[in-house]
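Hey L., structure's done. Input below.
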Amino acid sequence: MIRAEKGVPDFWVTAMKTNEILAEEISECDEEALKYLKDIKWCRIDNPKGFKLEFFFGSNPFFKNYVLTKTYHMIEDDEPIQEKAIGMYIEWFPGKCLMQKVLKNKLKKGSKTKSQLLRPKIDKVKQKELKQTTNANGDQFT
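Output:
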């Protein structure tokens, strides 16, 4: 007996794509992974002030984690201002990291490949030592 999944198929990716601000941030690659998103939970944190988002995923071909979290620290002023955002380490399956790009290059004489995979320039030992990294937007990942 085949058991149908409850809920609206691709609910979260559809909801995100219909939001004007979020839609601009979702690439085709992201969209494929977001199809596995099952739920999002929010909770307030008091020290430091802010909130945490938890993204619950079903089994997927991109990463091992079932829950991804992102914590936002806020500065209270006339209007709340984001001080920093801290994401968690994602355990990508080999070749499935959505943060890597494949560049297509014209073949040069003597070249054996048509594309080149750009990887973060961190060796495996250094990567294990890193407990926290920051991207270009100032978001931190632990």
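The CA atoms of residues 36 and 58 lie 5 Å apart. The longest strand covers residues 37-45.

-- N.
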